[in-house]
Here is the input.
Amino acid sequence: MLGLNKKDTNLLIIVAIMTMLAPFLLNPFPEGSALAQFNAGYPDLMQRFVIFGIFAMGFNLLFGLTGYLSFGHAAFLGVGSYAAIWMMKLLTMNVIPAIIMSIVIAGLFAVVVGFISLRRSGIYFSILTLAFAQMSYALAYSVLTPITGGETGLQPKPNDPRLLDPALADGVTPRAGLFGLEMSSSTELSIGGWVFTFNAGYYVAAVVMLIAFYLSIRIFRSPFGMMLRAIKSNQQRVNYTGLNSKPYTLAVFVISGMYAGLAGGLLVAMDTQVGPERMFWTASGEVVIMTILGGAGTLIGPVLGAGLLKYMENILSKINKGVIEGWFAWAPDGLDSVLIYTVNMFVGKQWHITTGVIFMLVIIFLPGGLVELGKRGARVFRRRDRKGLGLEPDAAKQRNAAE
Amino acid sequence: MGILEVKDVGKRFGGLQALSNVNLSVKENSVHAIIGPNGAGKSTLLNCFVGKLIPDTGSVLFEGQSLLGRKPHEINQMGVSRVFQTPEIFGDLSVMENMLIPCFAKRDGSFELNAYGSVASQRDVQDRAEQMLIDMNMIDKREEHAAALSRGDKRRLEIGMCLAQEPRLLLLDEPTAGMARADTNNTIDLLKEISDTRDITIAIIEHDMHVVFSLAQRITVLAQGTPLVEDTPDNIKGHPKVREAYLGETQVAA
Ligand SMILES: Nc1ncnc2c1ncn2[C@@H]1O[C@H](COP(=O)(O)OP(=O)(O)OP(=O)(O)O)[C@@H](O)[C@H]1O
Ligand SMILES: [Mg+2]
Here is the structure.
């Protein structure tokens, strides 16, 4: 279907169903229960899941396929955001021109950065990209203040030109929308103790994410994608096979930068403001962690990694000492303070520690990331299944026949 | 004039004159062997043909066109393929993918941004790669990880990948080094068949005299960066200068 093989089609369908049902799936706990704080089904976080999913997906096209580790990808996200906000200031609050422009400008910027950085490989490439990103960050803060708004950043203001939009009534603030549908509008559905929120912005971002995911599958399965994996495997052989590796790496670098720009544009579409911190090197590091956490070089891994990291950032960080004290109220004196102290080290402001520990565990025990965890799980499951029924030889035979 | 004409080539590495006054003419559709002791400059000479090194002096002409200053991929697209001293294949890819890549390079040239169509749907390239694997006797290994192949199979695959590009000139750098006897004999048969059935010129560097004398029509002996003699295998075998410089210290028996 859609030019994909059966396995990829199934993957796309599963991802589509999950994203469409996310408001239900991410809100498993009834409102007001002790576990409700672990619910992730609120618009702001769901939007982040899919937007950073796109960012990681694009990063993975470069890193996962070619092995070129960019350490400055947040620069493209930031440039995309600035481009989007300027479209909203100059043209219209409709998100479509903003999103298109964020992709175009980030792509052009990636041509320049890629052309220079790709003269080197390995650690030197990483450092060049990092240097570009930090330079962009510094420029956004200083010299480029007229374009970037410096430290305060930019927002659409009531008195911006906005050539295509009718003038706003007095006291009305400009809001991003899609032909009249406001990004921030939501519908709530209450069933029993549960409350599910369906947000317009989330669904717009989710549809864009599905398109980006579909394109990423196409790139993975294309001759171009195969050449990129060949470059990762043995660049010398690529060159001595009559292939010019330069344009291949530059092309994927630009595509990857366009994905990042798209993510930046969507961030602005959801929350109409931008500041230079978006381009800080920690933001570039974050996408590296997401991709590796989920499984670099796999299709779905980066999206899962982005989800996991954003979940921890938003949920773990909300758990404060008071909440933990509630959890351990049952424990005898002495023990409870030990437990509270221990758990407190990993939540609240210290959520980075949890991320760090998980990241280390993944690198050491699961170099293939969450996707590898899933694969191993499936294998164990299948094996037990067969043993339990005493069907091992039959199952093997069937498999061979099927192949 | 030969398909490959090397004139007065010299190459210096710091204080070491690796090549000097190398003159060589490789006749079209022949098998030409280059032999010589370790460090004689054989690999360096090949590097000058494929764009890995640029000689300090002299010229290298392939089918009348200079190769100097061209990039490796340009030289390859002109019809020169090279098999390396240690097999250079795509270890992370499957055997079939290894074969698909040169087939794409042959069809699409040095760059083609085909990021939307699937590899599986390119029937012509798929069929070609499959046929090459059949010819190479490797079709049963098509889904295997190339890194997991035996050394002999890796070498076979690399030769197959070069042949898939239908090169006019195939350069081989010690293709049988480190191979078991059986694998070596297979490789000899393979190269003989290629040379007999295809419109191809082969230049081969080899230490194993059995391989050299089984295949070559001409032999150039290189010593300390300079050709000592160039002649037919029969004449080389009895040449006193060659015995002294080279054969004396390696296996002549073969
Ligand atoms: N890139 C380089 N830089 C410096 N010296 C080099 C370089 N490449 C080769 N050499 C030197 O040039 C000389 C010739 O090396 P080359 O590899 O061409 O020999 P060879 O005939 O292929 O030997 P072998 O039979 O061992 O493969 C050697 O002394 C080697 O150390
Ligand atoms: Mg050598």
About this structure: The radius of gyration of chain A is 23 Å. The domain at 6-300 of chain A is CATH 1.10.3470 (ABC transporter involved in vitamin B12 uptake, BtuC). Chain A touches chain B at residues 3-5, 218-219, 221-227, 229-230, 232-234, 236-245, 247-248, 251, 255 (CB under 8 Å).
